[in-house]
Amino acid sequence: MASLLISANHMITTPADGPTRVLSPGFVRAENGVIAEVGEGRPPGPPDVRLADGLLAPGLVDLQVNGFFGYDMVDADEEGWRTVVSRLPETGVTAFMPTFITAPVGTQAEALRHARDLLPRLPAGARVLGVHLEGPFLSEKRKGAHNAAYLIDPEPEALLTLLETGLVKLVTLAPERHGAIDAVRALDAAGVLVSVGHSDATAAQTAAAADAGARMVTHIFNAQSGVHHRDPGVATQALIDRRLRPGLILDLHHVSAETAKLVFGAASGRVVLVTDAAASAGMPPGTYDLGGEPITMPEEGPPLRADGTIAGSGLRLDDAVGNAAALGIDTATAVDAATRVPADLIGRADLGRIAPGAAADLVWLGPDHRALATWINGQKVFGGGS
């Protein structure tokens, strides 16, 4: 693989001995797909790419993608997977977790086998980090857009069936369900990240899940018990428990601007920006599919079920970063929430940072924080630079 030298007027970097910060200017050199050198100031030689404006950032990492560009990941054919993997870099995403929502265990297991078989045939594009199972071990009271008929307790046999392919790397569950704490321990022991979500749990029950190994909360404030001065729930524990990383859908529809500021303020350095994108993301208004049931994408706002329930989003992750910046969140923190924090959470210290030894996954974000160019393993997969 060829070398790559990029010079940028503004660049995010994560030093080994300090916090993520912005270099103005800075440069990065990659060799054989890996970052070899990061420096402040102008590069020692003529760069291959010179970025006069915007921001050079690590490739974005999205842990919750139900679908995109008209395809629902759980039942997408090979063409659908190829489309999503190839086009997600248009949004700055270089690594993601396809997310399968609640369905019968047998249906989910078949979808996992299908994904396992086609992954080796996918073209160069966004990395598939494993599958996020959002259900079926969720609360009926907080089901959101999930089908209540398929919600079950996390029995050991069901877990074994779903883990058989080795693809499952993240499971969202409700810790108040029968057997859920034992399931958290079993999943953690198997190397699977556990997130609390679609849950009516108390703060104490959420803390018990963290004691057992849970380390994330799925889309904070959405489909979960919240913040009450005498009856604290999942969201409260997510904000105060430093073991937990709250996922945040920052489209300004799922949570208000004020609530998003609260999350960043209370959970400083722990926020994980996610899209929860549905098949309607990147598409015009119309009817699409989420988990085998229809959703409608309106002219404005997120997709909806027929009963008006929010069903995923149409959000791009680069836009989530831009929304955070527009709220006054500093640039390094906003980018970190879509790069280093999720990468570290899933044990991928080689991703989500511009630092020597990391993969050369990079994105040039324009002044509006939209992706203008994206590189994966030092190879340009979208856009260009000058």
Automatic annotation (TrEMBL):
SUPFAM superfamilies: Composite domain of metallo-dependent hydrolases (SSF51338), Metallo-dependent hydrolases (SSF51556)
EC number(s) recorded for this UniProt protein: 3.5.1.25
Chain coiled-coil ranges: none
Domain Amidohydrolase-related: 56-379
GO molecular function, one term: N-acetylglucosamine-6-phosphate deacetylase activity
Keyword annotations of the record: Carbohydrate metabolism, Hydrolase, Metal-binding
Annotated transmembrane regions: none
Protein family membership: Belongs to the metallo-dependent hydrolases superfamily. NagA family.
Annotated protein name in UniProt: N-acetylglucosamine-6-phosphate deacetylase
Protein species of origin: Actinomadura graeca
Recorded name of the encoding gene: nagA
